Amino acid sequence: MSTWNSRGLRGSTLEELINRTNERYLEDGLALIQKIPTPITPINIDKETRHITLAYFDQKSTVDYIGAVQGIPVCFDAKESAVDTFSLQNIHPHQVAFMEDFEKQDGIAFFLIYYTGREQMYYLPFRHLKVFWDRAQAGGRKSFRFEELDQSYIMGNSREVLVPYLEMLQKDLGEREKE
After folding, report:
1. Which residue, 18, 53, 58, is CA-closest to 37?
2. pTM of the model
3. How many whole angstroms separate alpha carbon 43 and alpha carbon 162?
4. What is the pLDDT along the chain (179 residues), one digit of tens a residue?
5. What are the distances in angstroms from CA 155 to CA 2, 18, 45?
6. Which three-class secondary structure state does DSSP give residue 164?
7. DSSP string, 130-147
């Protein structure tokens, strides 16, 4: 797993690990999760190969992944942080609005954050993120520290999958039932 620290492959490696995990969850009949392509606007297209040679990213992408886990709608975004302080600038207002609306429809929204310096994966329930988001909107810190997170959502290692987020989703669901 040392490839996670490779600067050139940072985001794509995390994405690949999640994609492989999602394939395994599908094979096991546990979940159907789709990667949402990042919307782009092509500027130049090579007429011979029909490949896009220049494009820019559209600003309004929602989340990285969406699907269902045994009948429960889920959506999530994957992020990386090299340091223990996670800047909320990495999350866009339209993403928060989408996740909020998704949860109003009885879906479950969350973030998977890979803390590269710690080599730890973290499952951040949307309602926990919302506390930090609201704090920032009220003029408070525009970030949150690793120490502020509920440590019980740190993902352990699994022999079956690379990013075992379903265990944390189950924990998240259990806590929602208690509330």
Report:
1. 58
2. 0.84
3. 36
4. 333 333 433 456 889 999 999 999 999 999 999 998 776 777 778 788 877 777 666 666 689 999 999 999 999 999 999 999 999 999 999 999 999 999 999 999 999 999 999 989 999 999 999 999 999 999 999 999 999 999 999 998 888 899 999 999 999 999 988 87
5. 17, 13, 42
6. coil
7. HHHHHHHHTTS-SEEEGG
